[in-house]
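User: Neurotransmitter-gated ion-channel ligand-binding domain-containing protein, Cichlidogyrus casuarinus:
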Amino acid sequence: MTYFPFDSQHCELHFGSTSLDDTELDLNFWRQKDYFQNSTVKDEYEFPYIDMKKFMPSNEWKTDGEDEIHVPAPRRM
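Assistant: Predicted structure for Neurotransmitter-gated ion-channel ligand-binding domain-containing protein:
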């Protein structure tokens, strides 16, 4: 935060369930234009649409029913 607002942060969100495994959990991502249509933060960040058709699970490891997706949300300057 030293060079705010010109710095960058790395944030990770982990979605999972303590009672369901990955075969019982269905995550649906929203589109930014529908969600932020009347929001004040819509001009501050660029939230990308996530196309889950290209998602490929790792063959090396698997967590407890969690899938990881890294999506940058760059701040508009």
